[in-house]
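YM 10:42: GntR family transcriptional regulator sequence, as discussed on the call
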Amino acid sequence: MNKFIIKKEKSYYEQAYESIKQMIFNKVFESGENISDTKLSEQFNISRSPIREALRSLEKEGLLIKDGKRFKVYEPTKEDVAELFECREALEFMAVRLAVERANDDELSELEMVLKKAENVLEKTDPDWDENIILINTQFHDLILKYSKNTRIQNQLNTLNSLIYFYRTINLSEKNRCDEIHAQHVEILEFMKRRDIKKASESMLKHIEDDLSHIQKLIDK
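YM 10:58: structure's back
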């Protein structure tokens, strides 16, 4: 719990927002759990106003659900994750097609460096490997989105970022699954480097469909 403390460099709202968000991602708050602004106010040693503002922001991102006068942590369902991933499929399918056309060689090299970082993390017995691999996985997808050079696609996906990250914490909780995802990322990049729009986009689509299937199985357990 020591990393979920309030410091004074940023506004109390910003710090409360980031801390609560990470507490959700790290399962300090479990799905369906009620969130008490009073308890958080005592824990962070700040007033309830910035905490309430942070809770409202997290509600807008989908990580919290308003339950009467209280907030509770988003609970994943097979139906909801299917809808979310349908959006991902449409947007990232198009993003990778555009990135194949528009990314220059240096930008593709940056993607390759990200995959090298992932490979290094997966090869080491790093106690924080799961958290690191989630961040690297996110970086890979974010760079493809960036190199699509389409701000409207970027803006659409940005509205889903928090829930996508939430599901990555579920999807990447097992080492074997991380290895499979890394192999799929390598394949996507190889097709991008060949400037093969059809195969790169098909590979991305299959990658996201596999993610969905795996997450739905875990939710079903």
